[in-house]
Amino acid sequence: MSAHADGTAPPRIPNPVRRGFGDRLRQIRYRAALAYYRLWRAAGGPDYLAEITFWEEILSQRPSSLFDRRVREAAFPPELRRCAAEFRRDSVRLPRLLELGSGPVSILASGIDDGLFTVVAVDPLARLYRYLLRFYGVTYPIQPLPGRGETLLKQFIPASFDIAYSSNALDHTGSPRRCLEQLCRVLRPGGFLLLEGFVREGTHGNWSGLHQHDLLAEHGSLTHLDRAGRRTNLTEDLPLTCVSERVCQFKDRGIEAFGYEVSPDMPPDPPWNYQDWYTLLLRRL
Hints:
Rossmann fold, seven-stranded mixed β-sheet, 8 helices, 10 strands, 30% helix, globular
């Protein structure tokens, strides 16, 4: 095994699991789910199919970056490290974090590596993602659970999380405002809510697929714009106060994997390198 320039061994890529009858049955169910989402899209429903096939392409390659601690550390939001440190000063237990819209490979893996908190990740496509992780032999420390941001209180009791987090996922939901209301309900008073993602991805994505909302952080709030340019303050009247807010170019955010890989056939200047990325840290009152 070759070593990295700094003398460390390269990350180990797991081999695909041996497939028995149960795996074949899960594959049949997976293909049936794809057919269902294809029909749903044809009927005017959300384009989940594009999201699923995108992640299948990523996971089928089992990219080594997913298992590289340095890549995980670079992608980990620094705000969450500070939140965890503040919480641990006042409590002996690990803070409990809820991630909304994690996808199959959450960018919070470094927090698990370092023992910063326990993570509960929810995603509406979690069952299919878990199948893909198993099918392609990807062992990952965070396994998503099925769930929607608009109905979190059906899964979790109020004030049961110390931190809530969502990365580039709110614009994929049916109602970002409803998701924020639910996140506030399951977050304890004094807890933190960290939101981040591409600025105005609906516009950048030509309002295609799941990109049906423009979001941006401004003046300590999360702002929504629809296709007509109508502006709504999504955090208005919610029990939240701004702790910090920043906008940077995505290429400076530090995320080099987790679905943001640059493929060999991609132009040297991928469009997302020049899109702004917002980060908004709020505290639950």
